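Standup notes
- DV: blocked on the single-chain target, sequence here:
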Amino acid sequence: MANPQATRAAKPAYAPPPIDGDFYRIATVLNESERALVKRVREFTEGVVAPVIEEFWGRDEFPFAIIPKMAEIGIGGVGYQGYGAAGGNWLLNGFVAMELARVDSSVATFWGVHTGLSAGSIYLCGGEAQKQRWLPAMMRFEKIGSFGLTEPLVGSATSGGMLTTCRREGDVWILNGQKKWIGNATFADINVIWAREEGSNQVKGFVVAKDNPGFSVEKIKTKMALRVVQNGLITLKDCRVPEADRLQNANTFKDTAKVLRMTRTGVAWFAVGCQMGAYEHALRYVTERQQFGRPIGGFQLVQDLLVRMLGNVTATQAMMLRLGQLQDEGVMLDEHASLAKAFCTVKCRETVGYARELLGGNGILLENHIGRFVADAEAIYSYEGTREMNTLIVGKSITGLSAFV
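- DV (later): unblocked, structure below
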């Protein structure tokens, strides 16, 4: 007689569904060529960045070998028109930002500082000759840029309390002061520096070369977040900059604010990408981690946290999708960008915290990725305008009353 145990069908091995942080399929709004660019970005991040990023993050160093490969995929100046830029629209720029941050927020920040803040300052505030002079090389990543606004004693109050000064002497400007937390500053070729003019108190923008004798930079060490980003403390001591290197259309802080408005949306996209990556790593972990003879992804409390994470990711993706559309329609206001930056970074903090919780003690190991996402979320939460400052911008818009002191 046949043994019923032997003839019973074997239980199929567990095969988890594909892991995809785009639950509502927002990428389907992109056209074929746009999706092809996003695909190239994903291939770059997963094939070039992911294999080395933990090592460089741990060493507090930048993987310079990735720069030529980043240039090859064509993401210099997404959303800009002309000057060798990638072109496209701001929604596509956001998808690129999200894809970069999905694997590493430091690499995303390097790209955002270079093609957003630095090149963006020249794109929005430079004269035509200046754009032709600097932007093509920046779009090819042959010349790398930094953006010097924040100071050691002045962060959120730079609009009215900037301490770095400039004064004109003939065809030369003399700059004095310091800038702190300046990404890419330790190696950037093109440093955009913002300074307050003595007398008029109006903010001006300048391009300062790294070999200018009045320009020096010291690397900021012992950071707990965005360790791959090379932040510098810039010192300007009687730094002489020719009038030809003053951004010709940067005459007040309102011009600086145009750049910040444009790039603040990118930071919100970084927050979406950061939590998207943390969610995907956590989901992969719980389908592989075994306890009591089965994957922990089958436990109720684990699934509860996963769905909370997915809800945050999807909500912020939907918000940014609409914000990108508003930006492309030319109707995005400061308060729109500020709400997104404030909301998305708060949700990012929450989501990466859930991911850390799901991994338990393993969540603090670099090899499991989540610890890096948790740490980097703290920097995203603060830079390009704190939650509090962005809240007051939105609050003024919806009440008609300013709460700024």
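- Follow-up: Residues 312 and 347 are 6 Å apart (CA to CA).
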